Amino acid sequence: MATLLVLVTVAAALLLVPPAIGSLAGGGDGNQLKGLQVMVPNSPGGGYDVTARAAASAAEGAGVTGAVEVFNLPGAGGTVGLRRLVNDEGDARLLMSMGLGVVGSVYSNDSPVTLRQTTPIARLTEETEILVVPADSPYRDLPQLLAAWRANPAALPVGGGSSIGGPDHLAPMLTAKGAGIDPKAVNYVPYDGGGDLLAAVLGGKVALGVSGLGEFSDQIASGDLRVLAVTAGARVPGVDAPTLREAGVDVEFTNWRGIVAPPGLTPEQRIELVAAADSLHASPEWRAALDRNDWQDAYLPGDAFGAFLAAEDERVAGVLRELGLA
Amino acid sequence: MNDFGLLDGFANALTPTHLLFAAIGVLLGTAIGVLPGIGPAMAVALLLPVTYAFEPTGAFIMFAGIYFGAMFGGSTTSILLNTPGESASVMAAVEGNPMAKQGRGAQALATAAIGHFVGGMVGVTGLVLVAPLIASVAVDIGAPDYFAIMVLAFVAVTGVLGASRVRGFAALVLGLTIGLVGLDPISGQPRMTFGVPQLADGIDVVIVAVGLFAVGEALWVAAHLRRKPTEVIPVGRPWLSRDDVRRAWKPWFRGPFIGFTFGSIPAGGAEMSTFMAYVTERRLSKNRKDFGKGAIEGLAAPESAASASSAGTLATMLTLGLPTTAIAAIMLAAFQQFGIQPGPLLFEREPALVWTLIASLFIGLVMLLALNLPLAPMWAKLLRIPRPYLYAGILFFACVGAYAVSGSPVDLVVLLAIGGIGFLMRRFGLPVLPAIIGVILGPDAELQLRRALQIADGDVTTLLSTPLSITVYTVIVLLFVIPLVLRRRRPVEPAREDELV
Fold first, then answer.
1. What pLDDT is recorded for position B222?
2. SS3 B394
3. A239 lies in a domain?
4. Is pTM beyond 0.90 here?
5. Fewest CB atoms within 10 Å of the CB: A8, B100, B126, B266?
6. Is the same domain home to A92 and A141?
7. What whole-number percentage of chain B has pLDDT above 70?
8. Which residues of A touch B329 (CB under 8 A)?
């Protein structure tokens, strides 16, 4: 029994070490945001989680904030967390890590609260989506693929790593629409994340795969996958593929991530949070985090992010409405 | 660079720093496995930011230790308290808990620990020998093949329905119904969520298993405690008898082959591995009548399959960059944090890291066996706690575990509701196991069937379009036909009903 207790104690001590390290970092000079909490609306290890934890540790390290508590409240594509955020009206010490996926989830989950109710703080990063085919695919470039797609959309299964309303679903729908194909006719097959999708694309189970660039970069480098187009507005270094616009489809699309705050903040509170985001963005710690994770900086603070968020919301709602999902 | 092999890996893994990382990993993993609610995936995700400061090899040795350690530790609560903490250890409760109740808790824990050790060893050897091969096969398996395997699994379920077929099927349908809750996997429409957003992601199989096994039983015991004298569960001898070893060694070695295969394919994972290993043993065993009452074979095989499936998962992740389970996805993210991309080029680019990691898996397994075998009799002493306190403790841990999964009170309500169902199932004699299997298999089968049909644009013949699917359906037909033919040849000897399945 004694050994057992020792084991449990040692384990508990080890489990408690990470938070202790977190709270030691930072130090204090009086000008920091204290007691900040960041809610992650998906599970540990997910995209919003990694972003939130990297941003929190960069903010602590740069002395922008005191110790930041990052916690997870996953569920229903982020709308469970969104509900909590909107409910905590006026709380100027709570932020939520979010991104394009939450915009779609609000519609696909028929959420009673929306992102328009939140206070936009900043967009932080973005990643281009890619249209890929396996190396032995008959489609050499985007026009060839589009020709086959137009001829018979149902016979060209498109695989994506996100559920309905997520980035990998919206990207092919917008591409199809831009190329004159009825989005309703697109045969979209959802997979459970990039890994599950990768097997289906490599094995030729789907004719076209749509995913974020990061998840497939090694298979692209090794030549197992061919990128037909990137969805971002500009070409991506290291990827030998045109943008959708260069390939003749007038669509620009990226999967972005940012932070929002609860509704009902005073202008001063809002300015304080946006200023903290500005300092975070300017810090070398955040720069290092961007490099380490291979994230594209896409900083857009305050009102500009609010306008962008409203435009994205409109665009996503438009696509989903056309599909009969919103 | 390229001639860095397994032996160099051992030399590298046996340095004091790497041994320390392995020791921390297996210790943490065992603790995480024992504690309800914290799975290995969550633990690795939370530790990830701390490991930036380490060199990658050490961090991955630790992560792998956590992964395998959680497999070892996870069966402890399953066996002793009927409260599985991870989906991989759900099947351990089925035979392990009855063994514990008969005073064979220490033997059950030892069987599980040795099973994990053997499974891990065979699995990691498989990782060394056939990783590239199995990984390339994994890509060729598509939705029609998965669906065929699911059909085979459903046919196998009929073997665990229990004495009354009607009750067994009722329980299975109950499980399938619980599996329907959540967003439709293809169209994204909510089903049976009753407007509760927390139900949109479905009900976790761990919550169902803990609810049906632990909460249901605690309620049942509470309802009958006054009528029965409160006796303390005996603890018994800590050693495996010669008969135990004779019955368990074949399952120990059979389980890993099932586990490694299912672990390495997407849509396999630990649940499918442990379940298939269990039904295989049930079919092959001479002691079939003992199943459900603490058959050691039914514990040995799924446990060794669980650890082997971890090795299979690692094989696919390292060679293809293809994560087949949640923890593999997080480890993949961890590799990317360190600027390393697992995949076809990993063995060429980072041979030192890969071989050191693989060597440390062997070392970690030895550590885990050395840690868990002596602990078995000590854990088993938990059962000396008088029943009212023991079940109060079980209820407490069940609730903590359910709440800790996502910090949502709704999960607690769901747990208690399912616990109530578990109580009623005991009251009306419905077996619990088919319900849990329904929750495991139902959503997967539905997803694969609909995905296959969608890719083929609604053409039903796609289900029979691949060599693997045809093979699996042939096996299913043979399983049905052979017993019928055998029975017709020897009409004198009446066939036992449970042999017909």
1. 86
2. helix
3. no
4. no
5. A8
6. no
7. 90
8. 45, 193, 195
Q: Which domain holds residue B167?
A: 6-465
Measure the CA–CA gap between A200 and A149, rounded to whole angstroms: 19
Assigned domain for A307 exists: yes
Same domain for A72 and A30: yes
Is the residue at B487 inside a domain?
Answer: no
Residues A95 and A137 in one domain: no
Using CB atoms, which residue from A22, A79, A293 is nearest to B197? A79
- Please tell me whether residues A135 and A181 are part of one structural domain: yes
**pLDDT class for A149, splitting at 50, 70, 90?**
very high
Which of A83, A198, A202 has its CB closest to that of B197?
A83
Q: Are residue A154 and residue A297 in the same domain, yes or no?
A: no
- At A84-107, the pLDDT tens digits run 898 888 888 899 999 998 998 888
* B50 with A21: Cβ contact below 8 A: yes
Is residue A244, in this structure, part of any structural domain at all? no
Type of residue found at A107 = Y
Rounded CA gap, B391 and B386, in Å? 9
Other Cβ atoms closer than 10 A to A322: 14
Q: Which domain holds residue A96?
A: 25-126+255-322
**Nearest residue to B422 (alpha-carbon basis) of B210, B244, B242:** B210
- End-of-domain residue from the set A195, A230, A265: A230
Report yes or no for ipTM above 0.90.
Answer: no
Residue B159: pLDDT band (50, 70, 90) is low
Q: How many CB atoms lie within 10 A of CB B386?
A: 11
For residues A215 and A195, the answer to whether their CB atoms sit within 8 Å is: yes
Spatial CA neighbour of A95 closest among A304, A222, A272: A272
Is residue B116 pLDDT above 60, yes or no? yes
Q: How many CB atoms lie within 10 A of CB A78?
A: 30
Q: Are residues A81 and A225 in the same domain?
A: no
Inter-chain CB proximity B49 and A293 less than 8 Å:
no
Residue B491, in any domain of the structure: no
Say yes or no for a CB contact (<8 Å) between A15 and B28.
yes
State pLDDT tens for residues B465-478.
888 889 889 988 88
For residue A229, the distance in angstroms to the closest alpha carbon of chain B comes to 22
**Which site among A42, A158, A197, A218 would you substitute to test the B interface, given the most B Cβ atoms closer than 10 Å to its Cβ?**
A218
Six token digits for residue A321: 């409405």
**pLDDT at residue A19, as a whole number:** 42
Q: Please count the structural domains in chain A.
A: 2
Split into its structural domains, chain B has a count of 1
- Predicted pLDDT at A26: 40
Torsion angle in degrees (nearest 10) through CA of B408, B411, B413, B417: 180
